[in-house]
Specification:
The chain is 38% helix and 11% strand. Strand 6 and strand 7 form a beta hairpin. The longest helix has 21 residues, at 187-207. The chain has 10 helices and 7 strands. A 7-stranded mixed beta sheet has the order 3-2-1-4-7-6-5, with helices on both faces.
Length: 261
């Protein structure tokens, strides 16, 4: 049975609608690239000041919908405590928002927080050495990577301060025995970072297959890591995720154009 979700385009600020379209696109792309875990992870985006003023408000997925079902109009507007701020008929998952609220609270620059439980990401999160410097992709991750120890399902507010301290100013966070998380100023930035993070983990899992140990791999020269930030700016023409975002949206328009409904 197809979901029938009335459009909210004419009921929200134009800036909010644009954010809704970008966030819905992000959910669809996560599903398209195979990083989703049924309904059990979240991507949150902070509403701009033009919409929310100085109050922190966010968009998040309606709990229970698959990522490839999410549309701009189905996204739910919530406050920092994950209380619903609109008349959206779908439920939200306050427990699932614990990690997101912790990061949004500590990082004013966090326009988007993207969290996954992908197979490769969880596999590397369980490896004691974490991300290894064995690929070009990994060098971008290692330039801004932090780790957070597993404390069980992340549903307790008391974990927030430890998570915030572990993340610090990093944009990549490996949640041990749990998954991956990226922080971006924009949705496009968070997505591109996750694409890089996920591929780093997939490459590492493949490289370690066949009874190969970490000692048997060729590491990137540590000095190269120092120039990674500049290299990324050159590669994306200083646009970050926005460099590839239009092409990703064109891909969705060809395959899943209903995301912007």
């Amino acid at each position: 049975m197809d979901l029938i979700i009335p459009s909210v385009k004419d009921r929200v600020h134009a800036d909010e609608w644009q954010l809704r379209c970008d966030l819905a696109a992000c959910y669809r792309l996560v599903a398209l690239y195979g990083w989703s875990d049924l309904v059990f992870t979240h991507i949150s985006a902070k509403l701009p000041h033009s919409v929310a003023g100085e109050v922190h408000q966010f968009l998040i997925n309606p709990y229970g919908l698959m990522f490839d079902e999410i549309t701009a109009s189905s996204l739910v507007k919530v406050d920092m405590q994950c209380n619903k701020l609109d008349d959206n008929p779908f439920p939200v998952n306050p427990a699932g928002f614990v990690i997101h609220s912790a990061i949004h609270e500590a990082r004013e620059d966090a326009g988007c927080v993207l969290h996954t439980h992908s197979r490769a990401g969880v596999a590397v999160s369980a490896q004691q050495h974490g991300v290894l410097p064995i690929s070009q992709q990994s060098t971008f991750v290692l330039a801004s990577l932090a780790y957070h120890a597993y404390e069980g399902v992340a549903i307790r507010d008391e974990e927030k301060t430890r998570l915030q301290a572990d993340l610090g100013h990093a944009n990549y966070l490996m949640l041990r025995n749990h998954g991956l998380l990226t922080v971006g100023k924009t949705i496009a930035d968070a997505f591109l970072s996750m694409y890089t993070f996920e591929n780093s983990c997939r490459i590492q899992v493949d490289a370690l297959a066949g009874n190969v140990t970490a000692n048997g791999l060729t590491n990137v020269d540590p000095h190269i890591l120092n120039g990674v930030a500049h290299a990324m700016k050159v590669q994306t023409d200083s646009l970050g995720g926005q460099f590839v975002w239009p092409a990703l949206l064109r891909k969705l328009e060809r395959e899943h154009s209903d995301y912007a409904n």
